[in-house]
Amino acid sequence: MNPQSRDEARGAGDVQPSYSSAVETPFLPEDLRTPAGSSAPGKDANEAYELAEYGYGKNYVKILKVRRDGLRHSIREYEVNTHLQLDSREDFLQGDNKHIIATDTQKNTVYVLAKKFGIKSPEAFSLLLCSHFLYTYPQVTEASVHIEEYPWTRIMRDGQKHNHAFVMSPVAYRSCTVSQRRNEAPRIRGELHGLRVLKTTQSSFRDFVQDEYRTLPDANDRIFSTVVTASWLYNTGSVDFDRVWHTVKECILDKFAGDPKEGIFSPSVQNTLYLAAKMVLDQVDEIERVEMQMPNKHYNSLDLSKFQSTIKGGFEHHEVYQPTDKPAGIIHAQLERSNKEMASRPRQVFRRRAKL
Protein backbone atom coordinates (compact mmCIF):
# COMPACT_ATOMS: atom_id res chain seq x y z
CA MET A 1 0.00 0.00 0.00
CA ASN A 2 1.54 3.32 -1.02
CA PRO A 3 1.82 6.20 1.47
CA GLN A 4 -0.87 8.25 -0.26
CA SER A 5 -3.39 5.42 -0.05
CA ARG A 6 -2.39 4.82 3.55
CA ASP A 7 -3.03 8.46 4.39
CA GLU A 8 -6.44 8.31 2.74
CA ALA A 9 -7.38 5.19 4.65
CA ARG A 10 -6.11 6.55 7.94
CA GLY A 11 -9.03 8.85 8.63
CA ALA A 12 -7.50 12.09 9.79
CA GLY A 13 -10.66 13.14 11.57
CA ASP A 14 -10.58 10.37 14.17
CA VAL A 15 -10.58 11.63 17.76
CA GLN A 16 -7.47 10.42 19.57
CA PRO A 17 -7.23 10.97 23.31
CA SER A 18 -3.78 11.46 24.74
CA TYR A 19 -2.41 8.78 27.03
CA SER A 20 -0.24 8.53 30.10
CA SER A 21 3.07 6.88 30.83
CA ALA A 22 2.24 6.61 34.52
CA VAL A 23 -1.18 5.41 35.56
CA GLU A 24 -2.17 7.12 38.78
CA THR A 25 -3.35 4.02 40.69
CA PRO A 26 -0.34 2.82 42.76
CA PHE A 27 0.75 -0.75 43.33
CA LEU A 28 -1.08 -2.41 46.19
CA PRO A 29 1.17 -3.28 49.14
CA GLU A 30 2.00 -6.96 49.28
CA ASP A 31 0.16 -7.47 52.58
CA LEU A 32 -3.05 -6.04 51.11
CA ARG A 33 -2.90 -8.41 48.14
CA THR A 34 -2.90 -11.51 50.32
CA PRO A 35 -6.16 -12.10 52.22
CA ALA A 36 -5.83 -13.40 55.75
CA GLY A 37 -5.57 -17.16 55.84
CA SER A 38 -4.61 -17.54 52.19
CA SER A 39 -1.26 -18.37 50.68
CA ALA A 40 0.98 -15.70 49.17
CA PRO A 41 0.17 -14.69 45.58
CA GLY A 42 1.48 -17.20 43.08
CA LYS A 43 1.92 -20.03 45.58
CA ASP A 44 -0.34 -22.91 46.42
CA ALA A 45 -1.26 -23.75 50.03
CA ASN A 46 1.74 -25.95 50.76
CA GLU A 47 4.16 -23.63 48.89
CA ALA A 48 5.58 -26.52 46.91
CA TYR A 49 5.04 -24.68 43.63
CA GLU A 50 5.01 -21.09 42.47
CA LEU A 51 2.91 -19.68 39.64
CA ALA A 52 5.36 -17.87 37.39
CA GLU A 53 4.08 -16.56 34.05
CA TYR A 54 0.33 -16.18 33.91
CA GLY A 55 -2.41 -14.07 32.37
CA TYR A 56 -5.29 -14.28 29.95
CA GLY A 57 -6.90 -12.35 27.13
CA LYS A 58 -8.88 -12.38 23.91
CA ASN A 59 -7.32 -13.28 20.56
CA TYR A 60 -8.38 -12.69 16.96
CA VAL A 61 -10.86 -9.87 17.53
CA LYS A 62 -11.53 -8.81 13.94
CA ILE A 63 -12.63 -5.28 13.19
CA LEU A 64 -13.23 -3.33 9.99
CA LYS A 65 -13.30 0.46 10.23
CA VAL A 66 -15.13 2.26 7.41
CA ARG A 67 -15.00 6.03 7.06
CA ARG A 68 -17.55 7.56 4.66
CA ASP A 69 -16.90 11.10 3.44
CA GLY A 70 -19.60 11.53 0.84
CA LEU A 71 -18.81 9.31 -2.13
CA ARG A 72 -15.24 8.75 -0.92
CA HIS A 73 -14.90 5.84 1.51
CA SER A 74 -11.81 4.64 3.39
CA ILE A 75 -11.21 1.36 5.19
CA ARG A 76 -8.75 -0.21 7.59
CA GLU A 77 -9.08 -3.78 8.86
CA TYR A 78 -7.40 -5.18 11.96
CA GLU A 79 -7.08 -8.29 14.07
CA VAL A 80 -6.62 -7.47 17.76
CA ASN A 81 -5.25 -9.56 20.63
CA THR A 82 -5.60 -8.30 24.20
CA HIS A 83 -3.81 -9.74 27.22
CA LEU A 84 -4.11 -8.83 30.89
CA GLN A 85 -2.19 -9.73 34.03
CA LEU A 86 -3.86 -9.23 37.41
CA ASP A 87 -2.40 -8.53 40.85
CA SER A 88 -4.30 -11.56 42.16
CA ARG A 89 -3.76 -15.18 41.19
CA GLU A 90 -6.82 -16.43 43.06
CA ASP A 91 -8.52 -17.34 39.79
CA PHE A 92 -5.74 -19.87 39.13
CA LEU A 93 -5.09 -21.04 42.68
CA GLN A 94 -8.54 -20.94 44.27
CA GLY A 95 -10.97 -20.80 41.36
CA ASP A 96 -12.14 -17.37 42.56
CA ASN A 97 -13.24 -15.29 39.54
CA LYS A 98 -14.20 -12.02 41.23
CA HIS A 99 -11.27 -10.07 39.78
CA ILE A 100 -11.50 -11.41 36.23
CA ILE A 101 -12.40 -9.07 33.39
CA ALA A 102 -13.99 -11.60 31.05
CA THR A 103 -12.38 -12.07 27.67
CA ASP A 104 -15.77 -11.31 26.13
CA THR A 105 -15.67 -7.97 27.96
CA GLN A 106 -12.24 -7.33 26.44
CA LYS A 107 -13.65 -8.08 22.99
CA ASN A 108 -16.53 -5.63 23.54
CA THR A 109 -14.07 -2.99 24.74
CA VAL A 110 -12.22 -3.18 21.41
CA TYR A 111 -15.40 -2.44 19.47
CA VAL A 112 -16.68 0.27 21.81
CA LEU A 113 -13.42 2.23 21.89
CA ALA A 114 -13.03 1.90 18.12
CA LYS A 115 -16.48 3.37 17.65
CA LYS A 116 -15.98 6.13 20.24
CA PHE A 117 -12.48 7.28 19.30
CA GLY A 118 -11.77 5.81 15.88
CA ILE A 119 -8.52 4.10 14.94
CA LYS A 120 -5.78 6.39 13.71
CA SER A 121 -3.09 3.69 13.64
CA PRO A 122 -2.53 0.23 15.15
CA GLU A 123 -0.04 1.66 17.64
CA ALA A 124 -2.26 4.54 18.77
CA PHE A 125 -5.23 2.22 19.26
CA SER A 126 -3.08 -0.26 21.21
CA LEU A 127 -1.98 2.56 23.53
CA LEU A 128 -5.60 3.56 24.04
CA LEU A 129 -6.61 0.00 24.93
CA CYS A 130 -3.73 -0.50 27.38
CA SER A 131 -4.47 2.80 29.08
CA HIS A 132 -8.18 1.99 29.31
CA PHE A 133 -7.61 -1.38 30.98
CA LEU A 134 -5.14 0.06 33.51
CA TYR A 135 -7.33 3.04 34.41
CA THR A 136 -10.61 1.20 34.53
CA TYR A 137 -9.57 -1.91 36.48
CA PRO A 138 -7.25 -1.36 39.47
CA GLN A 139 -6.53 -5.11 39.69
CA VAL A 140 -4.78 -5.05 36.29
CA THR A 141 -1.01 -4.77 36.70
CA GLU A 142 -0.08 -5.11 33.02
CA ALA A 143 -1.96 -4.79 29.75
CA SER A 144 -0.63 -5.89 26.37
CA VAL A 145 -2.16 -5.48 22.93
CA HIS A 146 -1.04 -6.94 19.62
CA ILE A 147 -2.64 -5.75 16.37
CA GLU A 148 -2.24 -7.07 12.83
CA GLU A 149 -3.36 -4.89 9.91
CA TYR A 150 -4.77 -6.27 6.66
CA PRO A 151 -3.13 -4.57 3.64
CA TRP A 152 -6.08 -3.15 1.69
CA THR A 153 -5.49 -0.56 -1.07
CA ARG A 154 -7.77 1.15 -3.53
CA ILE A 155 -8.56 -0.48 -6.87
CA MET A 156 -7.29 1.49 -9.85
CA ARG A 157 -9.62 1.83 -12.86
CA ASP A 158 -8.67 3.80 -15.97
CA GLY A 159 -5.84 5.44 -14.05
CA GLN A 160 -8.09 6.60 -11.21
CA LYS A 161 -8.42 5.38 -7.63
CA HIS A 162 -11.83 3.92 -6.92
CA ASN A 163 -14.04 5.70 -4.38
CA HIS A 164 -15.24 2.62 -2.52
CA ALA A 165 -13.65 -0.56 -3.95
CA PHE A 166 -10.44 -2.12 -2.58
CA VAL A 167 -8.06 -4.99 -3.26
CA MET A 168 -5.79 -6.75 -0.78
CA SER A 169 -2.20 -6.13 -1.86
CA PRO A 170 0.24 -7.65 0.64
CA VAL A 171 3.62 -6.21 -0.33
CA ALA A 172 4.34 -6.46 3.40
CA TYR A 173 2.29 -6.97 6.53
CA ARG A 174 2.10 -4.50 9.38
CA SER A 175 1.63 -5.22 13.06
CA CYS A 176 2.52 -3.79 16.45
CA THR A 177 2.79 -4.85 20.08
CA VAL A 178 2.23 -2.44 22.97
CA SER A 179 2.55 -3.38 26.63
CA GLN A 180 2.27 -1.23 29.73
CA ARG A 181 2.72 -1.98 33.41
CA ARG A 182 1.05 0.15 36.05
CA ASN A 183 3.07 3.28 36.85
CA GLU A 184 5.44 2.63 33.95
CA ALA A 185 5.80 4.02 30.44
CA PRO A 186 4.36 1.89 27.64
CA ARG A 187 6.67 -0.18 25.45
CA ILE A 188 5.71 0.39 21.81
CA ARG A 189 7.05 -1.99 19.17
CA GLY A 190 6.34 -1.49 15.48
CA GLU A 191 6.55 -4.55 13.24
CA LEU A 192 6.87 -5.46 9.57
CA HIS A 193 6.90 -8.96 8.15
CA GLY A 194 6.40 -10.85 4.90
CA LEU A 195 8.40 -8.37 2.77
CA ARG A 196 9.69 -10.74 0.06
CA VAL A 197 12.31 -9.28 -2.24
CA LEU A 198 14.60 -10.60 -5.00
CA LYS A 199 17.31 -9.19 -7.22
CA THR A 200 19.05 -11.04 -10.04
CA THR A 201 22.52 -9.49 -9.78
CA GLN A 202 24.70 -7.16 -7.68
CA SER A 203 25.10 -9.78 -4.97
CA SER A 204 28.03 -12.00 -4.05
CA PHE A 205 29.22 -14.24 -1.25
CA ARG A 206 32.90 -15.18 -1.17
CA ASP A 207 36.05 -15.44 0.94
CA PHE A 208 34.32 -17.19 3.84
CA VAL A 209 35.89 -19.93 5.98
CA GLN A 210 37.60 -22.67 3.98
CA ASP A 211 37.92 -25.99 5.83
CA GLU A 212 37.22 -29.70 5.45
CA TYR A 213 33.47 -29.17 5.88
CA ARG A 214 33.00 -26.56 3.18
CA THR A 215 31.43 -27.51 -0.15
CA LEU A 216 29.86 -24.16 -1.12
CA PRO A 217 31.94 -22.36 -3.77
CA ASP A 218 32.52 -18.63 -3.92
CA ALA A 219 29.72 -16.78 -5.71
CA ASN A 220 30.77 -13.60 -7.50
CA ASP A 221 27.32 -12.89 -8.88
CA ARG A 222 24.19 -14.58 -7.55
CA ILE A 223 20.47 -14.18 -7.07
CA PHE A 224 19.69 -12.59 -3.70
CA SER A 225 16.23 -13.18 -2.26
CA THR A 226 14.85 -13.00 1.26
CA VAL A 227 11.69 -12.40 3.26
CA VAL A 228 12.37 -9.51 5.64
CA THR A 229 11.00 -9.37 9.17
CA ALA A 230 11.67 -6.21 11.16
CA SER A 231 10.63 -4.80 14.53
CA TRP A 232 11.59 -1.58 16.26
CA LEU A 233 11.19 -0.06 19.70
CA TYR A 234 9.98 3.52 19.98
CA ASN A 235 11.39 5.97 22.52
CA THR A 236 8.26 8.16 22.40
CA GLY A 237 4.57 7.96 21.66
CA SER A 238 4.46 11.42 20.04
CA VAL A 239 5.06 10.23 16.50
CA ASP A 240 3.27 9.62 13.23
CA PHE A 241 3.26 5.82 13.40
CA ASP A 242 2.03 5.41 9.82
CA ARG A 243 4.87 7.56 8.48
CA VAL A 244 7.47 5.62 10.47
CA TRP A 245 6.21 2.23 9.23
CA HIS A 246 6.48 3.34 5.60
CA THR A 247 9.90 4.88 6.26
CA VAL A 248 11.22 1.60 7.68
CA LYS A 249 9.92 -0.28 4.64
CA GLU A 250 11.52 2.18 2.24
CA CYS A 251 14.86 2.01 4.09
CA ILE A 252 14.90 -1.76 3.66
CA LEU A 253 14.04 -1.53 -0.04
CA ASP A 254 16.61 1.21 -0.62
CA LYS A 255 19.53 -0.75 0.84
CA PHE A 256 18.39 -3.94 -0.88
CA ALA A 257 17.73 -2.56 -4.37
CA GLY A 258 19.60 0.74 -4.62
CA ASP A 259 19.49 3.00 -7.67
CA PRO A 260 16.87 1.91 -10.24
CA LYS A 261 19.44 1.66 -13.04
CA GLU A 262 22.68 0.73 -11.28
CA GLY A 263 21.44 -1.05 -8.16
CA ILE A 264 23.54 -1.48 -5.02
CA PHE A 265 26.18 -4.15 -4.46
CA SER A 266 25.70 -6.61 -1.59
CA PRO A 267 28.77 -8.55 -0.42
CA SER A 268 26.60 -10.48 2.05
CA VAL A 269 23.13 -10.60 3.53
CA GLN A 270 24.71 -9.48 6.79
CA ASN A 271 25.98 -6.24 5.29
CA THR A 272 22.68 -5.46 3.57
CA LEU A 273 20.80 -6.03 6.83
CA TYR A 274 23.17 -3.75 8.76
CA LEU A 275 22.93 -0.93 6.21
CA ALA A 276 19.14 -1.10 6.24
CA ALA A 277 18.96 -1.05 10.04
CA LYS A 278 21.45 1.83 10.21
CA MET A 279 19.42 3.83 7.70
CA VAL A 280 16.31 3.35 9.85
CA LEU A 281 18.05 4.80 12.92
CA ASP A 282 19.54 7.61 10.85
CA GLN A 283 16.16 8.67 9.49
CA VAL A 284 13.83 8.07 12.45
CA ASP A 285 14.90 9.71 15.70
CA GLU A 286 11.90 8.23 17.52
CA ILE A 287 13.24 4.67 17.14
CA GLU A 288 15.49 3.42 19.94
CA ARG A 289 16.35 0.00 18.57
CA VAL A 290 15.66 -1.99 15.40
CA GLU A 291 15.87 -5.72 14.83
CA MET A 292 15.79 -7.52 11.48
CA GLN A 293 15.80 -11.05 10.14
CA MET A 294 16.66 -12.01 6.58
CA PRO A 295 16.44 -15.74 5.81
CA ASN A 296 17.96 -16.96 2.55
CA LYS A 297 15.59 -17.89 -0.24
CA HIS A 298 17.85 -19.84 -2.57
CA TYR A 299 17.60 -20.02 -6.35
CA ASN A 300 20.11 -22.62 -7.46
CA SER A 301 21.63 -22.94 -10.91
CA LEU A 302 20.71 -26.10 -12.78
CA ASP A 303 23.19 -28.32 -14.61
CA LEU A 304 21.51 -28.89 -17.96
CA SER A 305 24.67 -29.95 -19.80
CA LYS A 306 23.15 -33.37 -20.59
CA PHE A 307 20.39 -31.68 -22.56
CA GLN A 308 22.49 -29.53 -24.90
CA SER A 309 21.12 -31.11 -28.07
CA THR A 310 17.58 -30.49 -26.90
CA ILE A 311 18.25 -26.94 -25.72
CA LYS A 312 20.15 -25.97 -28.89
CA GLY A 313 18.38 -23.13 -30.63
CA GLY A 314 16.79 -21.86 -27.44
CA PHE A 315 17.04 -18.39 -25.95
CA GLU A 316 20.69 -17.73 -25.15
CA HIS A 317 20.04 -15.11 -22.47
CA HIS A 318 17.35 -17.03 -20.64
CA GLU A 319 18.46 -18.81 -17.48
CA VAL A 320 16.52 -21.36 -15.44
CA TYR A 321 16.94 -21.71 -11.67
CA GLN A 322 15.54 -24.08 -9.06
CA PRO A 323 13.92 -22.36 -6.05
CA THR A 324 14.67 -24.06 -2.73
CA ASP A 325 13.59 -22.90 0.70
CA LYS A 326 14.78 -25.68 3.02
CA PRO A 327 17.30 -25.83 4.52
CA ALA A 328 17.86 -22.08 4.65
CA GLY A 329 20.33 -19.74 6.26
CA ILE A 330 18.98 -17.15 8.68
CA ILE A 331 20.69 -13.82 9.25
CA HIS A 332 19.55 -11.55 12.06
CA ALA A 333 20.83 -8.56 14.00
CA GLN A 334 19.70 -5.90 16.45
CA LEU A 335 21.02 -2.36 16.11
CA GLU A 336 20.51 0.17 18.88
CA ARG A 337 21.66 3.64 19.71
CA SER A 338 24.78 3.87 21.85
CA ASN A 339 24.64 5.32 25.36
CA LYS A 340 26.73 8.27 24.21
CA GLU A 341 24.39 9.02 21.33
CA MET A 342 21.34 8.77 23.58
CA ALA A 343 22.86 11.14 26.15
CA SER A 344 23.07 13.87 23.51
CA ARG A 345 19.40 13.56 22.57
CA PRO A 346 16.53 15.48 24.23
CA ARG A 347 14.57 13.37 26.67
CA GLN A 348 11.27 12.14 25.22
CA VAL A 349 8.18 12.32 27.42
CA PHE A 350 4.73 10.80 27.17
CA ARG A 351 1.66 12.97 27.34
CA ARG A 352 -0.91 12.38 30.03
CA ARG A 353 -4.49 11.64 29.24
CA ALA A 354 -7.73 12.23 31.08
CA LYS A 355 -9.43 9.24 32.62
CA LEU A 356 -12.02 7.74 30.27
UniProtKB/TrEMBL annotation:
The gene is LOC113216932. This is Uricase. Keywords: Oxidoreductase, Peroxisome, Purine metabolism. Its main location: other. Residues 1-44 are annotated as: Disordered. SUPFAM superfamilies: Tetrahydrobiopterin biosynthesis enzymes-like. The lineage of its organism: Eukaryota, Metazoa, Ecdysozoa, Arthropoda, Hexapoda. Its EC number is 1.7.3.3. Belongs to the uricase family. O2 binds at residues 103, 296. 5-hydroxyisourate binds at residues 103-104, 205, 222, 269-270, 296. Residues 1-11 have a biased composition (Basic and acidic residues). GO terms for biological process: purine nucleobase catabolic process; urate catabolic process. GO terms for cellular component: peroxisome. Catalyzes the oxidation of uric acid to 5-hydroxyisourate, which is further processed to form (S)-allantoin. The active site is at residues 58, 103, 298. Pathway: Purine metabolism; urate degradation; (S)-allantoin from urate: step 1/3. It catalyses: urate + O2 + H2O = 5-hydroxyisourate + H2O2. It is found in: Peroxisome. One of its GO terms (molecular function) is urate oxidase activity. It is an enzyme of class 1 (oxidoreductase).
